[in-house]
Amino acid sequence: MSNEKKVVIVTGASRGIGEALVEAYRRKDYRVVATARTIKPSGDGDVLTVAGDIGDPATGPRVVAEALERFGRVDTLVNNAGAFVPGPFTKYTRDQYALMLATNLNGFFYVTQAAIEAMEKRGSGHVVSVTTTLGELGNSKVPSALASLTKGGINAATRSLAIEYASRGIRVNAVSPGIIKTPMHSPETYELKATLHPMGRMGEIADIVGAILYLETASFVTGEILHVDGGQSAGR
Ligand SMILES: NC(=O)c1ccc[n+]([C@@H]2O[C@H](COP(=O)([O-])OP(=O)(O)OC[C@H]3O[C@@H](n4cnc5c(N)ncnc54)[C@H](OP(=O)(O)O)[C@@H]3O)[C@@H](O)[C@H]2O)c1
């Protein structure tokens, strides 16, 4: 297979933001490697699906290896897979802690390490991670220290990696959503969740996809945490 087309890896691609990203990158004629635990095979020859738990340290390197074997290159990694377990700090269980660390931090670390290794060989690449404004700003109505711990860690690593790789052609950015209408939230909760944003509404999947596609072409932008949160990060 010729390898002129750009290749993006999207984690958490079975539904929600990740599923929409697969379609959006295909519209830009990228080849896509889509991964999630329940991802189904695709009828599109330019989409490779790889099933796996991103919290397992073996999954990320396997996804990158399969991308290289099938399509020959990795241009972009979108770290989109994630878990969200809100709750009072002292009530968090060991299982919840382990799940959040595995999905959000292992799920960032191992696939990013393997992808950057591949990008470094080509001298170019882009890593963009989906975090949350709760990673930087607490919200009294949504106690969620495990989201802050894990997604805040990704925000910090985004800046750190942006600097480490700035002179080597690899950009590293993040998109920080407010609350977005995805399968993560049931429609009965939309009205209440809308009030948690200064703009008085929840975000749409297209808002996040648009931000990621902007960063994809923003060749002078690295280390950016792009807030797409209806004003949450600006204050209350
Ligand atoms: N929706 C929001 O309000 C919101 C707000 C802030 C940040 N975010 C972030 O945005 C990203 C996407 O969220 P979403 O709302 O689209 O979520 P979603 O609808 O719940 O989808 C989550 C995706 O992640 C995958 N995933 C979850 N755990 C996984 C694991 N252990 N291994 C592999 N894949 C896993 C799921 O696939 P499988 O179940 O098939 O594995 C699914 O494709 C997440 O990182 C989330 O934290 C969302």
Write the layout of secondary structure elements.
Elements: E1 7-11, H1 16-27, E2 31-36, E3 47-51, H2 59-71, E4 76-79, H3 94-122, E5 125-130, H4 145-165, E6 170-177, H5 190-194, H6 205-217, E7 225-228
Parallel strand pairs: 1-2, 1-4, 2-3, 4-5, 5-6, 6-7
The protein binds NADP nicotinamide-adenine-dinucleotide phosphate (NAP).
NADP nicotinamide-adenine-dinucleotide phosphate binds at residues 12-18, 36-38, 53-55, 80-84, 103, 130, 132, 177, 179-180, 182-184.
3D architecture notes:
Helices cover 39% and strands 16% of the residues. It is of the alpha/beta class and 236 residues long. Strands 3-2-1-4-5-6-7 form a 7-stranded parallel β-sheet, sandwiched between helices. Strand 4, helix 3 (94-122) and strand 5 form a beta-alpha-beta unit. It binds NADP nicotinamide-adenine-dinucleotide phosphate (NAP). The site of NADP nicotinamide-adenine-dinucleotide phosphate has 27 residues, from helix 1. The site of NADP nicotinamide-adenine-dinucleotide phosphate (NAP) has 27 residues, from helix 1.
